[in-house]
Amino acid sequence: MKQSKTLIPTMREVPADAEVKSHQLLLRAGFIRQNASGVYSYLPLGKKMLRKVEDIVREEMDNAGAVELLMPALQQAELWQESGRWQTYGPELMRLKDRHSREFALGATHEEVITALVRDEVKSYKRLPLTLYQIQTKFRDEKRPRFGLLRGREFVMKDAYSFHSSQESLDEVYDRLFEAYSNVFRRCGLNFRAVIADSGAMGGKDTHEFMVLSDIGEDTIAYSDTSSYAANVEMAPVVTVYEKSTDAQKPLEKVSTPGSKTIESVASLLNVPAEQCIKTLVFKADDELVVVLARGDHEINDIKLKNLLNAGTVEMAAEQEASELFGAPFGSLGPVGLPSNVKIIADNAVQSIANIVCGANEDGWHYVNANVERDFNVHQYADLRFILEGDPSPDGHGTIQFAKGIEVGHIFKLGTRYSEAMNAVYLDENGRTQPMIMGCYGIGVSRIVAAIAEEFNDEKGFVWPANITPFDVHLIPVNVKEESQMAAADTLYDSLRQSGLSVLMDDRAERAGVKFADSDLIGLPIRVTAGKKASEGIVEIKVRKTGDVVEATIENVVNVIRELQASL
């Protein structure tokens, strides 16, 4: 491709609204342009990167036995109503009506569409298992689009769905696609880990996220410092064994705590450690208010609470709802004196504390020396808190450390969550009707591009890995008005392409400094420069990653590039 004939609008200045390196460089190097918040155009270089990632994804999915199809982005509301997600998916689902006032959604995901399709076409166990996938634009109305392609409202995704007649069949395909995903991320050169995850709005159990380790990641990974254990911090169980306090119980006492609304301020005022205090929180689980207790230095994990209660949704109750229950505002809530019909759940750590400090359900007052069973009752104890660095690893090996990660893939064992809701059934070997067992597998294709961009760069621009670059070679005639340089460049352009190398030739009438700066910014692995020695049949070859420079005759350039590529 000749640079004068394409669209690569490079920028010298860093865009003011681009917070992270990948976003800055993708804009500056002319790979993308923003159309609206969280919505981008992929310019020619960006489209080539997308295609490179898509090709890798397709190869691995095909090798794993999946078959590609393409489903509509515009989805009927009736399908989402069948699954129950029209009401529960939330405001991220972009909804619209056609001219006949029929409701539709722009595809955020395709469980409903694929389930309906297979339900109508597959009737017998003989057609199972079946794994189908697509690569398509998805739409989610993110509350806060940020970091360029890492969190957008419109993005490219590969989503796959498998259908089975047995759990064993699902497990086999799940493991096969787990390995296919690992291959994709290895081939893209990413430093990633597969972590135990929560299924969220997708439903189902037994899920893994694939996280690229990065300081800008929005997810926290809890991992063992001595084993392969890794989990999303929301899913990591706490296995700490708490020793019950042997302190003698002291008389309950009500004390004044004016203006103290937080654990930190109360603990400081009363000169007690935060772990001697308990937080009293009120959650709304579906339509039921639930009181949850945690040690003062711990945070309640709402995912664990949701799973414990088997609730569809769990969220913090509004202050007015809590005040009606306790007769007091946030900051003064406590379990002492609550009606017996109020359900109180506590994290396991609470059980070990004696002489607790807690809210007195009166603004500006707290209790000291409150004790479980004597002063209040707990209906159930469970692991409800977030794991912390230094906690024992759940697998029994080492201690927990934290890292930040960018989610680039997620796989789920859905079970019969959608097939039962949407009546996707088949006839088994005995002629009996059975619900199909399903799996779901997603990869953020455009997010992978951003993750690669985030990892492979330096102070000058991108440093693309050789196997996933828009072009293999950047060919630069220094002065397009110099006949010998242009003749050498034209000869090389043809010979490099004939040898199977992809070439971007900078044939613009620009100064050499501009061309070299743009070349470093774009970041192709090999640069070939036809300069002053072109008249002697000699060009310069530079490796972007190392900065190494060699000279070669025009006839030998292909061989030299092949040798250099082998070492990258």
UniProtKB/TrEMBL annotation:
Its EC number is 6.1.1.15. The keyword Aminoacyl-tRNA synthetase applies. It is an enzyme of class 6 (ligase). It catalyses: tRNA(Pro) + L-proline + ATP = L-prolyl-tRNA(Pro) + AMP + diphosphate. GO terms for molecular function: aminoacyl-tRNA deacylase activity; ATP binding; catalytic activity, acting on a protein; proline-tRNA ligase activity; transferase activity. It comes from the Bacteria. It is found in: Cytoplasm. GO terms for biological process: prolyl-tRNA aminoacylation. Keywords: Aminoacyl-tRNA synthetase, ATP-binding, Cytoplasm, Ligase, Nucleotide-binding, Protein biosynthesis. Residues 38-465 form the Aminoacyl-transfer RNA synthetases class-II family profile domain. GO terms for cellular component: cytosol. Catalyzes the attachment of proline to tRNA(Pro) in a two-step reaction: proline is first activated by ATP to form Pro-AMP and then transferred to the acceptor end of tRNA(Pro). As ProRS can inadvertently accommodate and process non-cognate amino acids such as alanine and cysteine, to avoid such errors it has two additional distinct editing activities against alanine. One activity is designated as 'pretransfer' editing and involves the tRNA(Pro)-independent hydrolysis of activated Ala-AMP. Homodimer. Consists of three domains: the N-terminal catalytic domain, the editing domain and the C-terminal anticodon-binding domain. Belongs to the class-II aminoacyl-tRNA synthetase family. ProS type 1 subfamily. This is Proline--tRNA ligase. It comes from Domibacillus epiphyticus. The lineage of its organism: Bacteria, Bacillati, Bacillota, Bacilli, Bacillales. The gene is proS.
